[in-house]
TrEMBL record:
Name of the protein this chain belongs to: Nudix hydrolase domain-containing protein
Gene3D superfamilies noted in UniProt: Nucleoside Triphosphate Pyrophosphohydrolase (3.90.79.10)
GO biological process, one term: AMP biosynthetic process
SUPFAM superfamilies: Nudix (SSF55811)
One Pfam family linked to the record: NUDIX
Keyword entries, A-Z: Hydrolase
Organism: Heliocybe sulcata
Domain Nudix hydrolase positions: 11-165
Annotated GO MF terms: bis(5'-nucleosyl)-tetraphosphatase (asymmetrical) activity
Amino acid sequence: MHMTQVTRPPVTERSYGIVLVRSPSIKRSSLKSKDVEVLLVHQLGPRLPSASQIHSPSTFIPLPKGHKEPADATDLAAALRELREETGLSVSTILCGEKAIKERYTNPRNGQEKENTFWIGLAEGDREGVQVQVEEIERAEWVQMEEAVSKATYEETKLVLREAARMLDEEQKH
């Protein structure tokens, strides 16, 4: 039996981001997915043409991410910089052995194949105050992992969050 393999177009756009988690517990041993909160951003979308929505841009809920810049030494450095720019927050530790989670999809706006790479990071300190980049982000919020999965706009983001939860839970077994 001969199987036909579907080939996807090459990736033409890449972004890098952080699944930022925090835990009320100081102990790293309790960083199970049910015990952490995840930072979600409400990103400003393009203004909609409808007259009733001209003054209120649409928002969608992804994870903080962005493109690599020439000054970024590594892909992870780009992800950490983007997190700081978009939220004002920093990471104390990259979790799960710095294993990355990748998502890939066709960007509906331009038809280009996009790949996003995420690392799981533990938020530095116990800072409540998120300072959002107002040009791109309407607001940010800390929510339980399960709630983050249900609130995320795109199925790809939901899959990244589920994989992050699985990785956190798997790491706690060792």
